[in-house]
Design brief:
single chain; 189 residues; alpha+beta; 6-stranded mixed sheet; 6 strands
Length: 189
């Protein structure tokens, strides 16, 4: 997940004065990249996947779930192998890389290194996905679970967050969801 720069879009009447500049420099950038890459032979394309997990707290006694806003605590544990590798405390590459997402109840997991262009690489995907789920679960509290749904079905219902907050609406301007669910990074609110 890359950083976004801050800015204000121009209305067309203001933007059209820059159209020729953008067109010329866009073509120039394309040609520079093309020239630098055109003679490469047999380059192996690399690829990967990402899975976004919701952190769900399970109350067995009450038979209910809530979204847990502990993503940053969990990420702090999950990122240890990557930090150790980057600081040369170990020479073992991490099996997975972890990043925050939009919500404080979400974490993103990707493979530790990209896959290549062979059939053998395809066979690594499922086992790495299983490993990432296991690692995520191990970094959570005993009553938490990594869930892979598009979104939490009861998001926006009262008392569905742990800890609980009242909707206050300054950043997300929602009558149902409090701003505390949003990642505090400047990219989001």
């Amino acid at each position: 997940m890359g950083l976004l720069s801050l800015g204000t879009p121009l209305v067309w009447n203001e933007a059209k004065q820059y159209a020729e500049h953008v067109r010329t420099h866009g073509i120039e950038q394309f040609l520079n990249i093309y020239r630098s890459q055109k003679d490469k032979q047999n380059a192996s394309l690399l690829w990967g996947d990402e899975i976004e997990y919701l952190v769900v707290k399970i109350d067995e006694k009450e038979k209910r779930t809530k979204l847990s806003l502990r993503a940053f605590d969990i990420l702090d544990k999950l990122e240890i192998p990557e930090r150790n590798y980057q600081s040369k405390k170990t020479d073992k590459e991490p099996d997975a890389l972890w990043r925050p997402e939009y919500g404080r109840y979400m974490i993103e997991g990707t493979p530790g290194k990209p896959y290549g262009a062979t059939f053998r690489d395809l066979l690594l995907v499922e086992s790495n996905m299983k490993l990432r789920r296991k690692l995520a679960h191990e970094a959570m509290h005993e009553d938490e679970m990594p869930v892979t749904l598009v979104n939490y079905p009861r998001l926006g219902c009262p008392h569905e967050l742990e800890p609980d907050y009242e909707p206050n609406g300054k950043a997300c301007q929602s009558l149902f969801v409090p701003d505390e669910v949003i990642n505090p990074h400047v990219r989001f609110p």
